[in-house]
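Budget justification note: compute hours in this period were largely spent on complex prediction jobs such as the one shown. Inputs:
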Amino acid sequence: MSRLRDQLQQARRQYESAQYPGDLAQEMLGHRLAPGKRRWGWWVAAGAVAAAICLTLLMRGGTFTPPPLIQPAPQQVAIAEEPSTLLVPAIPEMPEAVAMLPEVENSTLLLPAAMPTMPSFSWFATYDDAEQDQTNSDEK
Amino acid sequence: MSDSRTVDAHLIQAARAGDRDARAAILQDLADPWYRTALALLSNADDAREAVQEAAARLLRDLPKFRGDSSLRTWAIGIVINVSREMRRRPRRLVPMLEQEPPAHAPGPDGRAEQSEQESRLRQMLDHLPERQREAVLLRFFEDMSVDETAKAMQCAEGTVKATVFQALRALKRMMEGRTEQQSDSRER
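Corresponding output:
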């Protein structure tokens, strides 16, 4: 059987060397596929599938561990040693003798003596009278 | 498998929608496997080319009917097998392979003798196999199809494929043994 297998392998090599003598797409569709586009569909779709698989794996993984952020090491600043006693200045005290509110002797409100009066618009009446006179003279 | 089917689905969808690039890409990818299959089944370069064009026309016509039960390639190989069967049944094409001119891709006469002696012998033996056995051997051993894919391409049951392949290999072995005996007899004389 191994001899048969060898011969099948040889025949297969010859079989695989056969190529269609022409451009089938051009013959059937009158449309030549640009060399760069020949496998665009396969590549685009394969990329989409790969992305979907990666996304699924990430989602199934549960937790997404981002790469560790590089944090700057805390800098140690040399601080000059000083005496630890805190010197607080004296708090000014409110004098007790001073009153917080001014004393009002008379509690009545300080109002002006007289309310301001509205100005009289006498020119309104003058204008109406003149208009009436004009109308009467026209009718006459 | 599922990935390739997804890729198939994208291309088929685009081709159905009338995308000329998608249709051209499908035909471009199938041209060589179609031609190899047809050439092996018909043993004639012109017939094989005609079969490929007919298969391409049927694929474009039947693409809306494709249900995706198998991969696009398996379905397409099934189409070219059907076309080749029909062409083989035409009486005018029943010409033995030995009487035909070598195909255009065959190597030149200088390097051909040693290389193709065994290959052509096997191809002659394949030519003598019944149609179904030849198809089964071709798809299983040359196209590397699984039993399932071969069954779908040949439109038969998986058990039939297994039995057909077994019968074909047994027949090929007998033919080889017979030829070996003939050769040794002729040498002794």
